[in-house]
Every structure is written in structure tokens, then in C-alpha cells.
Amino acid sequence: MIPFPRLAAFLLAAATLSTHAEATEGYFLEGYGAREKGVGGAGAADSRDPLALSINPAGLVDVNDQYTLGLTAFSPDRGYWASGPGFVAPGFVQSGRALFPIPNGGYSQRFNQTSAWGVAVYGNGGMNTTYSPNYVSEFFGSPMCGKTGVFCGRNAGVDLNQAYITAGYAQRFGNLSLGFAPVLAVQIFKARGLEVFAPFSMAPEQLTNHTYNWSVGAGVRAGLQYRVTDSLRVGVAGSSPIWMSPFENYKGLFANRGDFDIPANITAGVAYDILPTFTLLADWKHIFYSQVPSVGNWSTEQLPLGAIGGPGFGWRDINVIKVGAEYRGFEKLTLRLGYSYNNNPINPRDVTLNILAPAVTKHHISGGLSYFVTPSSSIDLAAVVSPQATVSGVERTPLGPNPMRTITLYLNSFEVTAGWTHRFDAASTTPVTARF
């Protein structure tokens, strides 16, 4: 059996050190494994692999003994257009770095028919932008500072990476299953080229151009699943905020002296088996971005950067709708389709600062499959396309950095996930087309 503590440590390090780009639901991914991505990120009421821990830990009790490993190649295209006076470089400006690896893995084991435990490790989408003249198709100096580059500097951007490790326990009581999973998180952050904001910071020496700064923290995810009939299941799950230690090297940038907690979220879903081998899924998710000051406070707050209650990125809460379908009727093949939609977290008034984090995509179309190379092992594949979305704003704050300048943020992305799942008891106990 796989030595999972060693594997978990490796995956956590890999997930943390992988450089991530803007994800899909703000800076959360729509799903963390090939199965979850293939069905649009749905699954609060239907769990089939250890990465159920990332959605609803109650589902562990329905997952056979298995482990899964995967890697996502995430490719975003992001940047902005700008016109009018201001210190942001005008014209069409595109961020560099177009490919990012994001690993995931999990292990689950039943104690008996009514209880199970599991461990999962996965990386979040994070935020990344890398602006330099090498990636600009139409680049001019800013008339307000006389220099070429975004924010009056030659190179600018941010890099936020997040990784999670969670261990969960689930127990079934008749038709009701309950699950509980503490979550440990590690995040690292780096900012470049933000010197122009120094006069507006309470700690300009901790604003930009430092090396990667680490932050650690913890929270908890819990959930329930209820089997209404043999074919119909419902699920509800939620995560507390993950309370993180502050970024000390960037306490002149983030509100509340460097605090950057991970926001809470809640999910509710339903799953219906049209056939024993054909399942439809639908989830609703709400992410509380506005409750994290460094993320949710308006960027136009008339307080210094880094101050208690100071400016943030101005992100509002978002709602996500996810639907998916999974067909397991072939001997060796499982097919999946999915779609998810979320409203945009970025307000038009906050476009200037969000040049650093243009997470504006709304539609996500996905598909995937699992091919069983043996009765107990499968190759898992998924792909997700997010068409281009934009947000435009004219900064009307007289004291703001770009008064009356129009800025349009854009983002589109494509990702492919490949994985391997091995089920320890599948060959002797369950046919390929059954529940897993």
C-alpha cells in the first residue's frame, strides 16, 4: 500500500512551489482532480474519489479504498487595455508566463461499511501576473511618470501560491452521512514593480520587491450527504475561513498589516441516477471574498495601503452554479461532461489595482474520461475551457491613481488534467461500472 505521509509531503511541497495563475472562481479552481473537473466541479452530493475532501468530506464513506494522483497544466491569457491619462501604461498590455503546473493527490480507506477516513493534497489557482515589455504588443511610456512599463516600472506583477493538506473522517447513520476535515494551508507571495504606490503605503519598505514570503494557517471543512431515495442524493458542505499568518514582508501592501486569510465558502448539491451507470449532478457554491479585508475592501479606500481597514482588491462575494453528467456504462470507460458559471468578483471601480489579478472569467466548459487499464486502475483525463471575459471601469475618484482613465481587464484560459487512480479492493469486490 502506498506510503501516503511521504507522498502527501511531496505533493504539498510541489503544490506550494508551483507557480499559479488566475483560476476560475476568483482564485479558487472549479475542481481539484480529473473527476471533479470533468463534471464542472460538482459533487457535493456524489463522491467517488479521495478528492471529495475538497468538496464534501461526508462523501468519504462512499469511496472505496484507493489513491489518486494528478497534475493540471493551466494556461491563461490575461492582461488589460488602457486609454487616457494616468500612470498605468496605455494600450494593450499582456501578461507573460502562459503555463502553470498544479498537482493533486488523495488517499481514502474504509474502517468498515459505515465509516472511512482520507487525506488529500491540492493546490489552489492563486494569482499571477508578469508584465514586462517583452510581452507587450503596443507599449508606450506613461505620460505621468515618463517611464515605460506597467505602474511606471519596467517589470511588475504578483505571484500568490496556495496549497492545502486535509485529513477527514466520515460516518454513516442510516441514510445520513456526516464528515469533518481539518485543513492546513501554506501560501507564498511575491510582488514586483509597485514602487509608485509607496507614497500611499503605511509601510513603503514592506510594499514590493521582496523575496517570496511564507504564510501558514488552518481552518475546517464539514458536510453532510443524505440519500433521499436509491437514486436521489443531496449534500451540503462548508469551509470556515482559513486563518493565515500575515505576510510580514508585504504589510505595506495588504490591509490589516499583511493579513491575507483564505475566505469561507458553502456548497449545496444534488445528484440523481437516471440509470445505475448514469448520474446527473448540480451544485451551488458561495465564496465570501468580501469578508477578507485585503481581498474585499475597496481599492479606493482613503486609507494607506497596509492600514487596518485599508484598501484591498475590492472583490465581492460570488455565486457559482455547476452542472455535470457522468456515464459509467462501458466496460472500461467512464465519460464526463460539465459546465459552471460564476458572477464576476471584480467591480469596475477597482480595475486599476486588479491589473495585478484580473480574475474575471465566468463560463467554464469541461469534459473528461477515465479509462480502466485494469479492473482496479484507471487513467483519468479532463479538460476545461474558459472563454474570454472582460471588466471595464473608469476611475472617477479624484484622488485615485488614474482619474478618468478607462481600463479593461481580460482573461481566458485552458487547462488539461491527467491522473492515475488505483482502487485496492475493486478487482475482488466490485465490477468496473459500479459506484466508483
Automatic annotation (TrEMBL):
Main location: membrane
Annotated GO MF terms: long-chain fatty acid transporting porin activity
Signal sequence segment: 1-23
Pfam families, per the entry: Toluene_X
Localization per Swiss-Prot or TrEMBL: Cell outer membrane
SUPFAM superfamilies registered for this protein in UniProt: Porins
GO cellular component terms attached to this protein's record: cell outer membrane
Lipid bilayer topology: Multi-pass membrane protein
Keyword annotations of the record: Cell outer membrane, Membrane, Signal, Transmembrane, Transmembrane beta strand
PANTHER family the record matches: OUTER MEMBRANE PROTEIN NMB0088-RELATED
Family (UniProt): Belongs to the OmpP1/FadL family.
Stated name of the protein: Hydrocarbon degradation protein
Annotated source species: Methylocystis echinoides
